[in-house]
Design a protein that fits this description.
Subcellular location: Mitochondrion
Radius of gyration: 21 Å
Distance between the termini: 31 Å
GO cellular component, one term: mitochondrion
Structural class: alpha/beta
Number of helices: 12
Number of strands: 20
EC number: 2.1.1.320
Main location: mitochondrion
Helix content: 25-40%
Keywords: Methyltransferase, Mitochondrion, Transferase
Length: 362
């Protein structure tokens, strides 16, 4: 089963703090893109976004009031508690299968998982046979998550499917916890509770424009070599990805007019396919919380710096890049063998979970 929640812009506060290494990061990544474009020609928006965010999440203080942005779990413990309560209620409706995998995609600072586990320990399911699995590609972020969640016996592994493991602190139930580069590495044949909080909006996207009923890819070229800026250009010939989306029925049926520019998350579709297969084969529940719409996404790729929206093609590696999520496409990829609901607004979800009642209790 899958549930999609739609965030509104006011639910996130984005800020930028300047770090000493930001100038160096900007120079290194800008030169990397310039050199690559001069040798091989324009690059896709997906490549630009992937490399920029990989650098961004591994440098400086990204999360929290002292970093670049604050998400809902950082504001109140109630948020993570409501997420855990919803997962537990759906798990009960599924017959309380055991053992369980608790999986989080892109855990950020780890604060939502701390709130989820603290709530779990307060329920009758505190001794549940449950292990925790964090999908996190940033080693810097994974260590920050471990510092919040684990006792001192954290182990770094190089010959396992996971790269880091530990035991959560007593207040979080003393559960086994593992970190992975990919969801592919998480053990199978176990019922899973899966959550993704603002994960899909940070995955790379491709941009396309419809011309004469055909999709042409929008790519990135050098605008000014000395100032280190880039620009969008339109491919005159077809690309592998433009040929690919021309075969996808979802986009054929969207009735988009000529001149429309859309954003396509191929990485998001691949991950959703893997999640769907896991749920179908092993059983599971997935909660996706993100910015987006229930239809093809049109021109939302953007960057944030200092509370302001800025040009996403300036200062690569030092600003937050994001694009809205196409929930319709994710449900299309998941297929008809899983139940998919939503999206609904975050406010409605929290009200339905009686967050105000929980607030009065604590």
């Amino acid at each position: 089963m899958m549930r999609f929640l739609r965030l509104k812009p006011r639910f996130i506060i984005r800020t930028i703090t300047t770090f000493q290494n930001h100038v160096l990061v900007k120079q290194d990544l800008t030169k990397y893109f310039q050199d690559k474009i001069r040798i091989n020609g324009p690059i896709t928006v997906a490549e630009y976004m992937r490399e920029s965010l990989k650098t961004y999440y591994n440098s400086g203080q990204v999360f929290g009031s002292d970093g670049d942005f604050i998400t809902s779990p950082e504001i109140s413990q109630l948020y993570g508690e409501m997420v855990m309560l919803w997962l537990l209620s759906m798990w009960e409706k599924a017959g309380c299968p055991s053992p369980l995998n608790l999986i989080e995609l892109g855990p950020g600072t780890g604060v939502m998982m701390t709130d989820m586990l603290r709530l779990l320990k307060q329920t009758q399911y505190s001794s549940l046979d449950l292990s925790i699995h964090m999908v996190e590609t940033s080693k810097k972020c994974s260590l920050e998550q471990a510092n919040k969640l684990c006792s001192s016996d954290l182990k770094i592994e190089s010959d396992k499917c996971y790269y880091q493991r530990g035991i959560t602190c007593e207040k979080y139930g003393k559960k086994e916890i593992f970190w992975y580069e990919s969801i592919d590495d998480i053990p199978r044949n176990t019922f899973s509770l899966i959550v993704a909080q603002e994960f899909f909006d940070a995955l790379p996207i491709h941009k396309f424009r419809k011309i004469n009923e055909k999709w042409h890819e929008i790519v990135i070229d050098i605008e000014n070599y000395l100032s280190g800026t880039f620009r969008y250009v339109l491919c005159k010939t077809s690309t592998t990805t433009s040929n690919l989306i021309s075969t996808i029925e979802y986009y054929k049926c969207s009735n988009l007019k000529n001149g429309t520019e859309i954003e396509v998350g191929l990485d998001a579709a691949i991950i959703m396919q893997k999640l769907s297969e896991r749920i179908i084969m092993d059983g599971g529940i997935f909660l996706c919380i993100d910015y987006g719409h229930d239809k093809p996404i049109i021109d939302t790729f953007r960057a944030f710096s200092g509370h302001q929206q800025v040009n996403p093609l300036h200062n690569p590696g030092t600003v937050d890049l994001t694009a809205d999520v196409d929930f319709g496409r994710l449900k299309d990829v998941a297929g008809t063998d899983v139940l998919a609901f939503g999206p609904i607004d975050q406010n409605m979800f929290l009200d339905n979970m009686m967050i105000n009642l929980r607030y009065q209790v604590i």
